[in-house]
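Q: Structure tokens for this one, please.
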Amino acid sequence: MDSNQSIAYISDIGAQGLQPLFIAGCAVTGVFLALSFAAERWLRHTGRLAKNMGMAEKVLSGLSIAFAIAGTCGLVLLSIFDTASYPRLHNGFLLLFIAGYVISAIFICAEYQRLGVHFRQHRILRASFWMKLFFIIIEVLFAAVFVGTGFTSHKSIAAVFEWIIALMFTFYVLTFFVDLLPAGRRHQKLTNLEPGHVGGAMQKRSGNGIAVDGGRGGVGNGQQPDPPVAQNY
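A: Here is the predicted structure, written as tokens:
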């Protein structure tokens, strides 16, 4: 911490006696965020979340995971190579951390925008899209201010923006809770199917014994449905 600096960087605090806790916190955050990306990809593949409709969406998802892994590596490595002993390496890994997650968020937004075209009934996709877009804009602006002030004599201002960037990253992590929330709703699974398959799936669901596509007791051939038969349960 410089003599003319009144507010400490997060890295300054982590480079002192709290470094083991700093490393552990960064590692846990990175691992669980990577698991969230993997869970989101798997749930979309199995239909528990809105499924990817084409190869482009799968590519966007894969790119978002790849850059998120790069950001996770930057987060863990910047905590290991502290700013007191390895200032250049620390700044490089800090840049990797910010750039990795910002680019990852851009690919996620592109994926969600395409999903929103096919699944307009899923309001949560739009909500998550706008939250992540807000993160991208704010993080890029604040990162530019952080870098601009960090290489000048305004160290305290840079430290303030570093704390804000960290809080914004916390907000970004919490948006994945919103993404995974629909997977816990059992009635959501039917609407996660491809739009062309939803009708066929609904035809197969005949809880009262009436076939929708015709046949005996059906309404598709102009006949009246048979009255329900009383059963003892």
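A few notes: The two ends are 75 Å apart (CA to CA). The chain has a mean pLDDT of 76.
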